[in-house]
Each structure stands twice: as C-alpha cells, then as structure tokens.
Amino acid sequence: MGNLATYHTANLPELMKVIRQNGIGMDDYLDKFFNAPTQTSNYPPYNLVQLNNHESRLEIALAGFKKDEVKVYTEFGKLYVEGKKEESKDVGEFIHKGLAQRSFERVWTITDDTEIRSVGFEDGLLTVELAKIVPEHHARKEYL
User: Fold this and answer.
1) Once rounded to an integer, what is the mean pLDDT over residues 73-79?
2) Contact 59/49 with Cβ under 8 angstroms?
3) Are 60 and 126 in contact (CB under 8 A)?
C-alpha cells in the first residue's frame, strides 16, 4: 500500500505540486480555480434567472447606455460584457448623481456545455439567454 499523507493549509503549495505532478489535464482546471479574477465592483447590477433545468437568463441594468456603447462577447470560456461611456457634456451642476453611467467590464466564467442563445438590449436592460447543451443520448425521449 502507498503512503497516505495528510495536508493542511500550511503545506498547501506542496499539495498543489503533488496534484500537478499526478493529475493529467488538471493544470487548466486548477489555473481557472486559483487565478480567477475577482470582481472589484458591483457595477452594473444584474439578475441571473433560472428558467428551467437547462436554460437561464442574465439581465443587466444599463440605464443611460445606448446599444452601440455595449459590447457582449465570449472568449476562452468567459462571457464578457463591456460598456464604453463617453464623458457627458451636461450643462449644470449635479446636486445628486445616482445613475453611475460609467465605463465598465464584467466577466463571467461559463462552462463548456453552456451556449449563448441570444442577446438583446431594450429599454436599458441587456438580456443574455443562456442554455446548456444537452447531448442527444441525454435528451428526454418519449416512447409511449
């Protein structure tokens, strides 16, 4: 029998070394896990709505943005939503400025079996329809 080693937080780097040496194909997973970017802002606010067990909708509030100021794209397993806002040339002084209307970038990690079905922008609400790709052999089939 092999040696059973116990690892604690103090020797986590040693554990990671053992996992990397013995885990074929784990490098990418571990890199995603440990090098995940942290969001520094809660702007813009969003909802993630689960429609059923394989469909969901991401709703992002973008009050004051125009469609041509927003960019949505996927790259390397991530969903990017960017908004570029030009400095306003409003005449006058703000007494209260509650609408941020600033440039931003939000990033969400999406799984390999998730696809973007549609993206819409209407009345200051960006909507991204997401769906799980269900392989044919896992899809529901009715026989009677």
Assistant:
1) 94
2) yes
3) yes
pTM assigned to the model:
0.68
Give residue 94's pLDDT.
Answer: 80
- Cα angle for residues 50, 56, 58 (degrees, 5° grid): 105
DSSP the chain: -PPPP---GGGHHHHHHHHHHH-TTHHHHHHHHHTPPPP---PSPEEEEEEETTEEEEEEE-TT--GGGEEEEEETTEEEEEE--PPP--SS--S--------EEEEEE--TTEEEEEEEEETTEEEEEEEEPPPGGGS-----
- Rg (Cα) of the chain, in Å, rounded? 22
